[in-house]
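hiii, so i know i said id send this last week but things got crazy w the move. better late than never?? heres the sequnce for the chain we talked about at the cafe, plus the structure i predicted for it. fair warning i was half asleep when i ran it
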Amino acid sequence: MELEEVTLPPAQAGPYLGLLAAGLFGMAGQYLIALPLLAVFGVKIAFPRAFALELDPLGFSYRPLLYRHRYAWREVRGFRVRAFRLLGVTFAKAVVFETARGELRALPESFRLEPEALAAFLNRYRASALAEGPN
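okay and structure toks below
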C-alpha cells in the first residue's frame, strides 16, 4: 500500500490576529512595526496553502515565513510536544523534533490540530514512510 501525500492547512486565526496587531500598531503611529506585520500576515491570508505542512513518503516541509524548510523522514528522530512554562504555568505548547545532527526544531504551529494530536499523527506517518522503503 502506497502512502498518500497529506497537506495540513495553517491555522485560520493567527493571520487575522497578526492583522489586528498591525492595525493597533498603526493606530498608535508605530508604522515601522505595523507595515511589516501587515505585509507578512496579509500574504499568509492571501496564500494560505503556501504555509501548509506538507507530508509525502520521502519527508515533510513547512514554511514559517519566506523560506520553505524540508526534512527527510530519516533526518528526524520523532516528534513530541514541548510545553513552555512561565512561573510554573504552561502558556504555549509546540511540536518539536530533533534532527539527526542533534538540533531541536519546532514547527511554527499545530496546523489546526491539538499539538499532541499533530505529534502523534506525524510519528505514525513517519513510521509508515520509513517502513515502506528507503528514504
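btw The first helix runs from residue 13 to 27. thought thatd interest u
miss u guys!!
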